[in-house]
Structures are given as C-alpha cells and as structure tokens.
C-alpha cells in the first residue's frame, strides 16, 4: 500500500528540539521530492520544507529558515525534520507530503508541482 | 512574495447545489494553481492540479478554471461528503508552494 506515516511529535518546552520522522512505503522513495507541511490548530496549511529525491537539494520557508533541517535516508525510505529552538508558534500538526516528480541537480523541478500523497500528521506542541 | 486571497472564507449550500470558490493571486502565476480538499481530522487531498486537471479518482463534479491571477473551483451536484475545507495552492514560486487561507464548505 502506498502510504506515509509520521511519528516523533510530542510536547516540548520552548527552546527545545524535536526530530520528526516519516516512513514511506509502496513506492520508489528515492525517485520523488518530499516535503513537510504544517497546520496550526484551527488554521490553514503552511509549507515549511522540501528535499529532492537524492537529498542533494533542500528548501525552507523563510519563516523557519535556520531552525529546521530536512533530511532523508533513501536506503530505509525515511524522511526527517529536525526542529531546533522550538517556539510556541511552532505548535502544529506536521504532515509529510510527496510530490509526483523530483528536482534535478540544478534545482529544476520535473513533474506535476503539487502534493499527491500525504501522511496523517504528527502533532508538535510547544508549551512550558 | 506572491499573496493569495481565497474567498469566501466559508459558505453553506444544499445537496445537489453548486458552489464556486475563488482564489486570487497578487501576480500572474500562469497555470500553476492547485486545489486541495481537507475533511475534518483528515490530511489534505489533491483534487485539481495545473488549474483544471482532475487528480485520478476525483469525481467529475469538481472542476477548476482560470488563468493569470484569478482562479475558481466549482463543485456541481453537491454531495454531503463534499463538506470540507478547500485550499488553493500556487506552485509558481516553487519550491515555495504557498496555500490560500481556505474555504470551509458546509452542505
């Protein structure tokens, strides 16, 4: 079955760190760009980070740049998001999402530029 | 940065009816506009990409149109299961894919 399964969320104090994981199955993981999208409680969707299929290209929203690190392990079909210096405004449901294409070595994206597969999300709560 | 304005923020409609949701961008984005459906407690689901192309498995009562800066999602023959929040998303500024604010549709 084609699916994404996130884990690693939880309650963290402000200033703390967390590593989110996303396990992919049912498709050739290394062929596709992957992303993290977050949704604060009762709010809309916000793209925060993306990574090319090889892992050689990483991308971040300006709102989180410097605090987030996206990575992937293609041998184990895993996507990760390291979040440092957590703030109350980071409280959100974090989704991993797949694109149906990939970036080449120059950063050009090939394929439909949308998120065609989503996980169920993992909740991050930042509070003292 | 490209700004996205989605309207209305919410609406109510009847079974069998028709609704139109609008997404406006602050600059022309060509064909790079997608639509998603998110039901309560669920992950978003891709409905339409590149303005008007239905994702596989999406019912034909969903349709998209527009170009440049003005885009619409139309749902015809509304069904109870269409109750959801709908988001537009522009991919013109890839890899920064920006979402609209969402439209909550109650049937």
Task: Report low-confidence residues of chain B grouped into runs of 5 or more.
Answer: none
Mean pLDDT value of chain B: 96
Q: Please identify the structural class of chain B as seen in this structure.
A: mainly beta
β-strand number of chain A: 13
Q: Given the structure, what is the number of helices of chain B?
A: 0
**Topology as H/E string of chain A?**
EEEEEEEEEEEEE
The arrangement of helices and strands of chain B along the chain is: EEEEEEEEEEE
What is the gyration radius of chain B calculated from CA atoms?
13 Å
Supply the number of helical segments of chain A. Answer: 0
Terminal Cα span of chain B: 34 Å
For the largest beta-sheet of chain B, the strand count, sense and barrel status come to: 7 strands, mixed
Strand content of chain B: over 45%
Strand content bin of chain A:
over 45%
Poorly predicted segments of chain A: none
List the quaternary state of the chains.
heterodimer
- Mean of residue pLDDT of chain A? 96
Describe the structure in your own words:
The complex is a heterodimer of chains A (128) and B (107). By secondary structure, chain A is mostly beta strands. Helix content of chain A is 0%, strand content 48%. Chain A has strands spanning 3-7, 10-12, 18-25, 34-39, 45-51, 58-60, 68-73, 78-83, 92-98, 102-103, 109-110, 117-118, 122-126. In chain A, strands 2, 4, 5, 6, 9, 12 and 13 form a seven-stranded mixed sheet that branches. Chain A has a four-stranded antiparallel sheet with strand order 1-3-8-7, with no helix packed on it. A two-stranded antiparallel ribbon of chain A has the order 10-11. Chain A is globular and about 40 Å long. Chain A starts with a strand and ends with a strand. In chain B, strands 2, 4, 5, 6, 9, 10 and 11 form a seven-stranded mixed sheet that branches. Chain B has a four-stranded antiparallel sheet with strand order 1-3-8-7, with no helix packed on it. In chain B, a hairpin with a 3-residue loop joins strand 5 and strand 6 (53-54). With 107 residues, chain B is mainly beta. Helices cover 0% and strands 49% of the residues of chain B. The mean pLDDT of chain B is 96. Chain B is built from no helices and eleven strands. At the A-B interface, strand 5 of A face strand 4, strand 5 and strand 10 of B.
């Amino acid at each position: 079955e084609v699916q994404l399964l996130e884990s690693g969320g939880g309650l963290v104090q402000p200033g703390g760190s967390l590593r989110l994981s996303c396990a992919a199955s049912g498709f050739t993981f290394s062929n596709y760009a992957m992303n993290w999208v977050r949704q604060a409680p009762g709010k809309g969707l916000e793209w925060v980070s993306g990574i090319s299929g090889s892992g050689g290209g990483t991308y971040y929203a300006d709102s989180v740049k410097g605090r987030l690190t996206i990575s992937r392990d293609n041998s184990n079909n895993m996507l990760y998001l390291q979040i440092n210096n957590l703030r109350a405004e980071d409280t959100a449901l974090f989704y991993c999402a797949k694109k149906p294409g990939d970036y080449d070595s120059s950063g050009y994206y090939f394929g439909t530029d949308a998120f065609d597969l989503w996980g169920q999300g993992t909740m991050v709560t930042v509070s003292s | 940065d490209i700004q996205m304005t989605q309207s209305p923020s919410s609406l109510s409609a009847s079974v069998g009816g028709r609704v139109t949701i609008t997404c406006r961008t602050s600059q022309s984005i060509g064909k790079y506009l997608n639509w998603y459906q998110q039901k309560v407690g669920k992950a978003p689901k891709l409905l339409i990409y590149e303005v008007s192309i239905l994702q596989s498995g999406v019912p034909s009562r969903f349709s998209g149109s527009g170009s440049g800066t003005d885009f619409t999602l139309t749902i015809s023959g509304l069904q109870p299961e269409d109750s959801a929040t709908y988001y537009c998303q522009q991919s013109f500024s890839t890899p920064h894919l920006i979402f609209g604010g969402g439209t909550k549709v109650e049937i």
